[in-house]
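Lab channel / #folding
Pinned by the channel admin:
"Please post every new chain as: sequence first, then the structure tokens as a reply. Keep commentary short and put observations after the output so the thread stays searchable."

First post following the new format, from NK:
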Amino acid sequence: MGSEAIIVFLIAGIILVAGANFISNLISPKSDSEAKRAPYESGMTTIGPTWVQFKVGYYLFAILFLIFDVEIAFLVPWAVVFKSIGAVAFLEILIFLFILGLGLLYAFKKGALKWE
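Reply from TO:
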């Protein structure tokens, strides 16, 4: 099982995805109206422009949340097998947490955590 299998799986994946998209476009109901293209907010007609630009701080805050969410995804399995993996893994997780701490310190210094 070498590179031929990888190529077969890649081609099969491309064909399945393209086929699913093609079939869904064929059988899906199509309707186009002014009401469908109108922006929707809680069932009410919007007041003012609907395409407003958000502050970049919201995106930075969301990215920081994702970073620390991924950190938990790495820490939980590590904590489950902590006794069996030894001191080297403990040192590695300390380095991981140190790097994340540096990232948090950098974000704090740049003002990404200020909510104004």
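NK: Helices lie at 3-27, 34-37, 56-80, 82-85, 87-110.
TO: also worth noting, The radius of gyration is 24 Å.
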